[in-house]
Amino acid sequence: MDARFTPEQDEIRRTLRELLHKRCGPEELRAAVDTPAGHDPALWTALAEQLGLPGLALPEPYGGVGCSVTELALACEETGRALAPSPLLATAALTAPLLLALGTDAQRADLLPRIASGGLTAALAVPGPALATALGLTGLDPRGEWAAAAAGGVQARRADGGWRLYGQADQVLDGHSARLLVVAAHTGGFARSRVLLFLVRGDAAGLTRVRQTALDATRPQGRLQLRETLAELLGSADTDALPALARLGDTVAACLAAEAVGAADRVLERTVEYVGQREQFGRPVGSFQAVKHRLADVYVEVQAARSAAYHAAWAAARQGRGEPAGGLALAQALQALRSAAAEGIQLHGGIGFTWEHEVHLYFKRAAGDELLFGPVHRLRAHAADVAHVFEEAGR
């Protein structure tokens, strides 16, 4: 493994950081999360047209850049630093790989170029708080029972030569604004039930969408209600969606880990700057040994999380599932972000608790991501099960 970045990878990071510095400052961030969509469409257009971000990991024949998960994770690290609210994670990491892996030739040719250009945003909808389970990050569910969990999940039936969906999905990332929805639904009845993925247009009849109030406003979520909603099967009836979702977990975990590392690194930088300026007893707060020790501990956590995130991206790009790199990296990164944000609030003093200062947004990102994709102890426990750690220790 060569851990050095290529000139192209360094250029992606540099250019994206400069763009976000200009277009996604604290004021722009707050304005964006208050919009109905929860993000700035103009920024998303700039990310698509100037950097090709939505199609970064898509093949060139479909209008993509032709890079790998590694480059997508590096881009997520920069968006995480700025807490940039955008459909990048939902569209490029959660949905586009499924369309590429399972879609028919006609579906790929129709949808992927529009995603790569930024003109089509997409979201993955699974019932209830089951996203981490569906992606194989916090447990194994080979029968896909998560799809029929909360409130009956989403059911699919054949009707009029097509498919109709009925049910509800909560906590769908960008589900309230995405123009295309990929919905996981049960079909076949109880005895022969299967999980299939369906394509639903954002303006489909029978679909009701509403933005939910989320702890992390920079990660907007929607609730979907489907009432006999017309849907198109993704792929064919013989397509097994569960393995594809499990494989997708590695990609998503690597991107999320990189995002969390970027956020943790930025909040640590801001805290170091602040304690170097704030004075107490006639000297900077940052000169006190206790403060230095606390920040040094956070720095070590962030650097360890960065190494784990980069390795997870490297492993996901090679599609190797022999090791639980993604889940472990995500656990390490979420813990580092939580530590960095908590110390940031404490060392900023009273201002750290105020709405006017953005350090609390990083703490909410840490807590929100743990609720959606964790918690940390479950990520680690599942990784240990996959690696047979306790079985080997008991021999």
Report on the architecture of this protein.
Keywords: FAD, Flavoprotein, Oxidoreductase. GO terms for molecular function: acyl-CoA dehydrogenase activity; flavin adenine dinucleotide binding. This is Acyl-CoA dehydrogenase. This protein is an alpha+beta fold and 395 residues long. It has 3 domains: 7-90 and 103-118, Acyl-CoA dehydrogenase/oxidase, N-terminal domain (Butyryl-Coa Dehydrogenase, subunit A, domain 1); 123-241, Butyryl-CoA Dehydrogenase, subunit A, domain 2; 242-393, Up-down Bundle (Butyryl-CoA Dehydrogenase, subunit A, domain 3), CATH 1.20.140.10. The chain contains 13 helices and 9 strands. It has helices at 7-23, 26-33, 41-51, 69-82, 88-102, 105-116, 131-134, 241-277, 289-317, 325-347, 359-373, 376-386, 389-393; strands at residues 122-125, 154-159, 162-173, 180-187, 194-201, 207-212, 221-233, 279-280, 283-284. Strands 1, 2, 3, 4, 5, 6 and 7 form a 7-stranded mixed sheet that branches. A two-stranded antiparallel sheet has the order 8-9. Helix 4 (69-82) runs antiparallel to helix 9 (289-317), helix 8 runs antiparallel to helix 9 and helix 10 runs antiparallel to helix 12. The longest helix is centred in the middle third of the chain and has 37 residues, at 241-277.
Chain-wise SSE layout:
Layout: H1 7-23, H2 26-33, H3 41-51, H4 69-82, H5 88-102, H6 105-116, E1 122-125, H7 131-134, E2 154-159, E3 162-173, E4 180-187, E5 194-201, E6 207-212, E7 221-233, H8 241-277, E8 279-280, E9 283-284, H9 289-317, H10 325-347, H11 359-373, H12 376-386, H13 389-393
Parallel strand pairs: 1-4
Antiparallel strand pairs: 2-3, 3-7, 4-5, 5-7, 6-7, 8-9
Helix pairs in contact: 1-4, 4-8, 4-9, 5-6, 5-8, 8-9, 8-10, 8-11, 9-10, 10-11, 10-12
